Amino acid sequence: MLELTSEGDLILKDADGTVAWSTNTSGKSVVSLNLTDLGNLVLFDKNNLTVWQSFSQPTDSLVPGQMLKVGQRLIPRVSGTNWTVDGMITLSMSSSGLSAQMETSPPQIYYEYSIDNPNASNESPYVEFVNGSLALFSNSTTNVSVISVPQASSVQYMKVGSDGHLRVFEWVPGWKEVADLLTGYLGDCAYPTVCGQYGICSNGQCSCPASSGGTSYFKQVDNRQPSLGCSENVPLSYLDNIDASTCKETCMKNSSCKAAIFQFGLNPTSSNCYLLSEMFSLMNIDKSKIFYNSTAYLKVQNVTKGAPNTSVDNRRSNRLPVILGSSVGALFVVMFLIVVTVLFVRKRDANEAEEEYLDQGTLFDSTKVAVKHLDGFGQVEKSFLAEVETIGSIHHVNLVRLVGFCAEKSHRLLIYEYMPNECLDKWIFHKSNKCVLDWKQRNHIILDFAKGLNYLQEDCKQKILHLDIKPQNMLLDGNFNAKIADFGLSKLIDRDQSQVITTMRGIPGYLAPEWLSVAITEKVDVYSGLVILEIVCGRRIFDHSLDQEDIHLPSLFKRKAKEEQLLDIVD
Description:
Blueprint: E1 2-4, E2 10-13, E3 19-22, E4 30-35, E5 41-45, E6 50-53, E7 61-62, E8 67-69, E9 73-74, E10 89-94, E11 97-102, E12 108-114, E13 126-130, E14 133-137, E15 143-148, E16 156-160, E17 166-171, E18 175-180, E19 200-202, E20 205-207, E21 218-220, E22 230-232, H1 247-253, E23 259-264, E24 272-276, E25 282-284, E26 293-298, H2 312-317, E27 331-333, H3 334-354, E28 361-362, E29 368-375, H4 379-391, E30 402-408, E31 411-417, H5 425-428, H6 439-459, E32 463-465, E33 474-476, E34 482-484, E35 491-493, H7 530-537, H8 553-562
Parallel strand pairs: 19-25
Antiparallel strand pairs: 1-2, 2-3, 4-5, 5-6, 7-16, 8-13, 9-10, 10-11, 11-12, 13-14, 14-15, 16-17, 17-18, 19-20, 21-22, 23-24, 23-26, 25-27, 28-29, 29-31, 30-31, 32-35, 33-34
């Protein structure tokens, strides 16, 4: 029974009279209740002011006109089939955008829609279900980005399910699913519970991790329902106080760690290690979609034959085994790494579109300019807005100058001052003697580079994070003065902000270690000073034409420094 009490509290009573739910509004002068045309249940006081409304108390659903504000989240209702993940999946709104994740420690994000420059307005961003879209707003008037929803021909609502999907339903009559909003580039395998715990998703099919050394450590929970996941054949036991020199050894000594995910970079020194306290579904790597190589080390109980030996040496030799997946790096945990992978793939595709430079054009006054052509939507649109907002509002001798821009439908043009000597990489990664810089020129370029970065970090009204410093984005004028270009990935932060939370951006090799943490500062661009090494050595950060030990320039630099033979690598 639903009752509006004389004290002004709206309560829901169970069959036995106990209170199952309440608005907790007693004593707040509530005098009336109204259900609006949009479906918002509102309690008013005697001055007709809103005291409480259901739209501000989201559960697992949104209806048209309802907002999800910063700090609010949708939580799926209890699942009738999978109780292990109840309450762990959430769709939440934060100051940096909309994200869906498993509420583990740390959270394992499987979907993210970011807002660029979330702090540009004093108002908090929010997401609203409007007809035809789930729209993200940076403030009350500016629509930042949109997730498309089928146009409504009747009543609609969207609900996040216990499987992590955000589905849109429409009255036909009868409720019919008309859209699945979070299922994108990687399909159903991107969801963290699609194959249950330890289950591996490949092309929509679920299986258990392969056996290792003739021993099978996992089995299907139910052979008739592979999606329920896998269980360990032998319960876990843990070893403590073991020295950790590798990723898997660190997991071994951590009693709460159930798996270690080792993500390979282009060189072992650039690899990342993630320790997971909860295991959900994994997926096999699809080379056509994912270009990062990863291996999952799953902690299991060692199965030994014969009597146990308690000597220290044998204890060390009986460390928990690991299971290697397929030949390409094998198992991939979606929940934490998938966001990073998708972002890098999108970034790579966006770069191909963004870096399409047209031939020089000449203005009416005979001034030569360079025209950059961006064509498309999504990330390309964000890149265009980022460049106009940052480089369009500042001026410095060591930053390329934006002369003008044009936006018509999906076409975007950025007009820059013409730099006759083009990109720095043409001059430092030379293959002939035609393009060689002397040491005076190189020293001058390095100083220009530092002055440009210093201006972005210290002298602008808002601190500017470039986030894509590399030789290709350093342009040279006719006198070999260097200017920083391409602000398509840049981000503005207020002067009083010490750090910012954002999605990973940039190119492997130039990414600072801070990207592995939750928050970064403007100093992430300082790590891109590796460009100085490239200028001095005349080679790229990664050069696969060299011997294995010389491929990674910083590692080579470190080794030569120890050997006191640094001149060996100077150009």
